[in-house]
Amino acid sequence: MTRMRDASLTPSTSPPASTDRTPAAWAPAPLTPASAEDGARGGPLLCLLFAAGSYPDPLPPLPAADIVIAADGGLDVLRRLGRRADVAVGDFDSLVGARPRDGGPDAARVIALPPQKDDTDMLAALKTGWSLGARVFHVFGGLGGRVDHSLANMQTMALLAAHGGIGFLHGDGQVVTAVADGRLSFPAHACAPRSMVSVLSHTDESRGVSETGLKYGLDGVTMSNVQVRGVSNEFLDRIPAVVEVRHGTLVVTFPEDAPLPSLIPFHAWDGRLGRLDASVSAALRTPGSLA
Hints:
Blueprint: E1 8-9, E2 31-32, E3 45-50, E4 67-71, H1 74-81, E5 85-90, E6 107-112, H2 121-131, E7 134-140, H3 147-161, E8 166-171, E9 174-186, E10 196-201, E11 205-212, E12 218-224, E13 233-234, E14 241-255, E15 262-265
Parallel strand pairs: 3-4, 3-7, 4-5, 5-6, 7-8
Antiparallel strand pairs: 1-2, 8-9, 9-14, 9-15, 10-13, 10-14, 11-12, 11-14
């Protein structure tokens, strides 16, 4: 099992057995945070997160992790890999195998969520990792399959960026990440021709967008989320590259075989990602509320 420094969950991690209680009446037990600066590599804690989407065959090499989390059907993938989750999170509606249990062979801890809730299983898993101290997330199975899930998972990468973390969605030979008010620095590396990098604005406006060391340069431009200007730039062979935004959030895609960028934030962030939300928004009309 991966190392989790002083990270623990409180014992009660299952929803109530009674069907009389609505999802809004139940909230998962709080988590005990670890130090976010005590990772295996001497930096922030790194979390591997396995979701229920599409996976390449074979999987790319997995980075060393401090925490491994399965989001719902992602536990099936971990079982096939012969790995144990530190935490399994979800309503488990996409799980093919047996439901996990606390301290079982599949997961050290289980957070069982109700099926009707505001947070997706992926977001709940990210919040769990964040509560345990992780600030770097590698997400597998978060792309492919249902397009709405892929789009929602890209939004969660922007959420991480807006709170000082960084996430990488891996799938179909590509990586998707996000940066907010900061710089992504890619080291020089050998790359094939047409090794594509795309940069899109997630926020309504992204100001001070610059790209250097790529085939096409940008210097302090403004991008918007209704104007596509940043698709299909290219890495240059053995040239370091930088993508930065002064104000706003960018979504950045690049090939799986490219080295991961380092993140340099331009200011301090609010480090609170929020508690697990197992409720249904009062603004949402459910079938029972229409009577």
